[in-house]
Each structure stands twice: as structure tokens, then as C-alpha cells.
Amino acid sequence: MNLIDELRWRGMLQDMMPGTEEQLKKEMTTAYIGFDPTAESLHIGSLVPILLLVHLQKAGHKPLALVGGATGMVGDPSFKAEERKMLDLDTLQKNVAGIKAQLERFLDFDAAKPNAAEMVNNFDWFQHITFLDFIRDTGKHITVNYMMAKDSVKKRIEGDNGMSFTEFTYQLIQGYDFYHLYTAKNCKLQMGGSDQWGNIVTGTELIRRKARGEAFAFTCPLIKKADGTKFGKTEQGTVWLDPKRTSPYAFYQFWLRTTDVDAESYIKIFTFMEQPEVEALIEEHRKDPGQRLLQKRLAKEVTVFIHGEENYNFAVEAASILYNKNTAELLLSLSESDLIDVMDGVPQFEVPRTDLEAGKDIVSLLAETGIFPSKSEARKTVQGGGVSVNKIKVPGIDMIVNTSSLLRDKYILLQKGKSYFLVKAV
RNA sequence: GGGCAGGUUCCAGAGCGGCCAAAUGGGGCGGACUGUAAAUCCGCUGACUACGUCUUCAUAGGUUCGAAUCCUAUCCUGCCCA
Fold this sequence. Notes:
This protein has helices at about 5-10, 20-25, 45-60, 70-75, 90-105, 125, 130-135, 145-150, 150-160, 165-170, 170-185, 195-210, 250-255, 260-270, 275-285, 295-305, 310-325, 330-335, 335-340, 355-360, 360-370, 375-385; strands at about 30-35, 60-65, 120, 185-195, 215-220, 235, 235-240, 350, 360, 385-390, 390-395, 400, 410-415, 420-425. It is of the alpha/beta class. The strands form 4 sheets. A 5-stranded parallel sheet has the order 3-2-1-4-5, with helices on both faces. It has a 5-stranded mixed sheet with strand order 8-14-13-10-11. Strands 6-7 form a two-stranded antiparallel sheet. The mean pLDDT is about 85. The structure holds one RNA strand.
């Protein structure tokens, strides 16, 4: 199966420029995707572009991962309602380095291979271009009319917040990236999320006018949940690829909680499973959705891909202890090291041991540890039956917690709704 | 530079002298149900030493027994004109 067919059945193809498929069939093609250095780590939203590059490389083509050291300084206005705040140079450099390190794990950079992946940073070529050079040599080729016609900027032009010139320039900067890679590295293809279509086309246009060359592009749909809400966010916030920001356990949980509808499309997008196997699995899942076969497999595949087998195994183990019913007794039987392992990734808090010896009311404990932002909220949730101590529901706000609640004489497992917190006596 | 509209609690958006910690919707959080899902239903959603008290409606002053609501100045945003 060729790359395009592969991506097509996986539902990873949105728009494609005519001739793209032919180009890919014709020869080994160099293609790039840009990553925004908005944070020090990539998050699962960036997983799709990463996977595109991986698929590309698997199909024998050469992937370039571009980190936007320069574009990050400007900020992409595409489909956004407001201007993003600017990052300072230090942060930006740190972010670029962090992202680079992560990308290196997913692609094959072995220079001995003809289609070895490469990493580029657009700051490297932009830092030497002066403003005047740019507007003369590049700005000249693209009209403002053309740029304004883009859907991606419409929201801002018609909206209440306006758009700064800086942001307006963005598509030209990104377009220049493509032009640069086209001339410097014979890169003929750009990929990206469908929100990037406008920017990408500006690039191919620039290549056509400035270099009289032909370049290609395709985009993949932006991942959405079936209910229309944003993909990749949980109550705890963004799901990151960096295990220091999102523990492998939390990462695993994120995928496990996918809805049935979403799981069917995610398993195609986020795993490398082959079509027949995927189809069989979907069918089996539909027979008994309660088993959540799809979610389990999806969570497994993605967790192993990002964090490795060992972390996956641990995540499964931890989940079973936390989610199985009637585990209050099981909890008491855990050894200290088991307890710590299982609670890895669970937020931890400390409380002075002397407080517990004296006896502490549950509300103060919850507020002072920081599990709740205020006593009011702690009180309300306890009254609503939303707090458990060591897997046993707290009956009322006058409950006193003392040393007898300590597991292994050291820990208390608190629950606020579905989330867990480990409090350590010190 | 001129004219106009506006800045309210997480967001949107009411309120325009006391009945306002501030309608309504969304979001969030919790509960029931359940498949660690979806849908549905219910409760909570400024803080505290909690049937009361305190701090909030861009900022700083002022009028008033009393202001988110009136006045003055300042800052910010958008639209229109130059």
C-alpha cells in the first residue's frame, strides 16, 4: 500500500494538491512538517504530525522535522480569535531544544540511510535575512489580496480583536520556509494539520513564482472528539509526551477513557496496526462495547510507542488497583514499595506528622495540603459525598483524621471524585 | 488627532442607586446511573473563625445614609472618520 492509500484508509488525509500522489510514486521525496515551539515538550496534539512523518519514512521517503525557532517568534494567527503572547528568546530556545530531543526518538536519523530523517530550525536561515531583503525578495511575490483571502486569517480580519502586522506576516514567513527547504534540500512536499493549508499553499505559490518550481502538499484533518470538544485535554490540562509532565500512567488513562466512537477513528490514526486487524477488532468491540477492547488496545499501542513496554505494564497494574471495586482492604495489604509504585504519577502532598497525632479535621487537611484551593470548596465537596479516605467515603465534614488512618504508618490515600492524591506524613 | 461604543465573578452575557456575592447560559467540580464511556438527572461554583462577617463588578478619587449602578480623571479595547 502506498503512503497516500495508507493515510487515506486511516482517515489522515484532508486536502491534497493535485499531483502529490504521482510525485510520491515517482521518486523518494523529501517532505517536511513544522512544529511550533510553544512549550518545552510536545503534546499529543503534535502526535499526528509526528505520525505523518513516521508513515512517510516507512514508505521510503525522507522526513524533515522543522522546529519553528523563527516562526515561534511571530505566532501563527490561523483560525485563532486573538493574538498569542510573545515568547522571549530564552524560552523559545529552550522549547526548541526540548522538542528536538523528543522528535529524535520517533524518527530514524541514521545518516547512513538515504531517507534518514533530518531536523531543521528556521531560525537558522531567518536570523540572517534583513527586513528589507525579505520584503523586497519575498514579499514582492505575494499580494496582500491573496493573503487576506485566506480563511485562516478571516476570523481575525472580521473579528473584534484585529490582527497585528506581525501576525499577518506569518503565512509569508512559513511560506518562505518551504521555499528555502525546496531550494536548499530539494524538499517538495509539506504536510500538516488542515489548519495549515492556507500557510502551506502560500509556500507552494512562492516556490512557483520565485523558483518556478513545483511543490506539493497534503494535510490531515484536525483531530476532534465526536462531541466536538477539543482533543488532547483532560481536567489536568494538556496531555504531554514528556513523562515528567504527564506520567505514563496518566497518559495511558487518557487513551483508555476514549469514547467508543472516537476509539474507532483513533485506533487507525494513532497506532500502526494493519487494516485487517483493526477492522476485526472494531467488529469485536461492537459486539460487546462494555469490554472496551478498543480502548484497551489503543491505550496499549500508543503508550508503548511513546513510553515503552515497561511503563505500559506498570500503568495497567496501577490502574487495576485504583479502579477495581472494594480495594480498601487490598490497599491495607500493600507493602510500602508497592504503594509507592502504584501511586507513581498520583499527585503527592505532605502533612506534618504532629498534626495527625493531634488529630486533624478533614476539611483543614484537604485545604492545607492544597488538594482543594479553599476550605469552602473542600467542605462543599465533602458534603456532596465527593471525598474518600483510603477508598472509604468521608461521612461528614466533622470527621477527624489521625494516625490510625495512615497506611504503612506513613500515607493517606485521598480521593476527590475520580482523582487520587497521596498524602505523606512527615 | 476627532467621533462613537465598551471594560461585570472561569467564559459569554444581564444588572444601571438599596430586594446584588450579583440573573441566565456555557464551562468546571461533585453525586446517582454506568462500561474508568456516552446520554440523563441532581447538587455546588468569591473567601472566612460560616444562620454571621469580610473582599469583589478596569484603576484612582468623589457624590450619597447607601454605588457594579451617578460624577471626575486615568488606563485599556473595538468600530468609524482624519
